[in-house]
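The following record pairs a protein chain with its ligand, fe (ii) ion.
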Amino acid sequence: MTDPNPNTSQSCQLECLARQLEAAEQERANALSLLERARAELARTQGERDRAVNALIGLRKETFFNLARDAERRDGESPMHTVRIGAYASLIATSLGCTPAWSEMLETAAQMHDIGKIGIHDSILSKTGPLTTEEWRIMREHPRIGAAIIGRSEEPLLQLAGEIAMTHHEHYNGAGYPRGLCGNDIPLAGRIVGVADFFDALTHDRSYRKALPVDTVLSMIRERRGEQFDPQVVDAFLRISGQIKAARQRIVEQERFSQATDGWDGDWWMLA
Ligand SMILES: [Fe+2]
Ligand SMILES: [Fe+2]
């Protein structure tokens, strides 16, 4: 039987199609909104995850810093020794033409150079008299201990810190320890921190000896150019000896100030 009114049937079909289209459109809109919500949720959880990871990395660095400072304190060094080494290392790197980003990372990483001393017994670390041969052997293990503690990380800063911990006592002529590396086989960061550590150690009092005058230590570094120290690092260091002296003075004054205000509950300007 034929449709008595073909126009009505066609318009019904069109209406039906329109409703189906509208329903499909609604479903698409619902799906899009679900997708949007899922994206927002993913971004939120990723943000939370990144914050948690960053907090963990920060906590790890802080732990290593505290361990390194504790090791220096047990060895009779002031906690500012690590800060000074970082500052000198960064100045030397800049003088050598290293990038600002690397010099900045070196400043932080260098502060953990002696973290391995936490593995050395107090009877050796705090001994005021000369060390016996056996005690020296144990003391010379601190680079390996430091590298083992810090160097397994995938974090570039901690990898650099591990490299410095391992190599800051190597000598350019191969007479250093623990591996007796020579020349450029010693990573640049280790060659830089070697000079910075030597300068700082000799220009400050220790329990068993007095500090040497800064200019005397500068001459000693010059004399060791190409022997204990990389000639290019020595040249870079001597080129900026004015900046090194100024940085040393600034940090020494900061330390004096913080000692003077230790336990002080007034305002800092009242002491000025
Ligand atoms: Fe050391
Ligand atoms: Fe040191």
